[in-house]
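Title: Prediction job returns without error message
Component: structure pipeline
Severity: low
Priority: P3
Assignee: unassigned

Description:
Job completed but the reporter wants confirmation the result is attached to the right record. Sequence as submitted:
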Amino acid sequence: MDYVLVHGTTQSPRGWDRLAAALDARGHRAVPVDLLAGGADLDAEEYADLVAGQVAAATAEGPDGGDGGADGPAVVVHSGAGALAAAVAARLEASRVVWLAAFVPDTVGGRSLLDEMQVSAAQMFNTEWTQLAAPPTEDPVTAGYFLFHDGDLATLRWGLESVRLFQPARVFAQKPRPLPESAESTYLLPMRDRTLRPHWMRATAEVRLGVKAVEVDAGHCPHVSAPEEVAGIIAG
């Protein structure tokens, strides 16, 4: 199967390298995409077109991914990229969406991410995260504390090399669209997350996606600290 890996707001595509290797070892094809390749001021549909172009180029150059071919790819979204999940899944005709410590849009109430944050930030995010004066990508100590605190020293150093800021303001202000009915959801919930609150992620997975979250003993970037475990869950 093909796994399209969509990075969040604090990492570049390099942050997927460990998970991509684990998926490849299982006979799948991982396709990391770069959302900044088209600029940082696109809407969700424009980012979906950008992703589709990168996926088409990557899959044209390499062999087919495992037993994939008949079904659409799986789209893996991390963190804030959850706001793009529906648009990307629809554009790629995805068979599955994997939400990795990801924001799940409020398709029930029709609120954008910014609208929801105005009234529910305390329920959604760790207090320390909301009190940051600057993006965590500007300081390696801050990035390490929030993103890579659950790994060893080598993992911390590796993770810091993947840090990069991505702020899709137009996407975060957009009203959410529903997921395609054909796309199933899997939600991976890292129980030691220091950004999104685990209890909020669990509740939104159940209410907005209709699934029970799969819990992992990790921080906000389990694809960095526990790639084999994540690959085993999403490809199992």
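Comment from assignee: result matches the submitted record. Residues 44-61 form the longest helix (18 residues).
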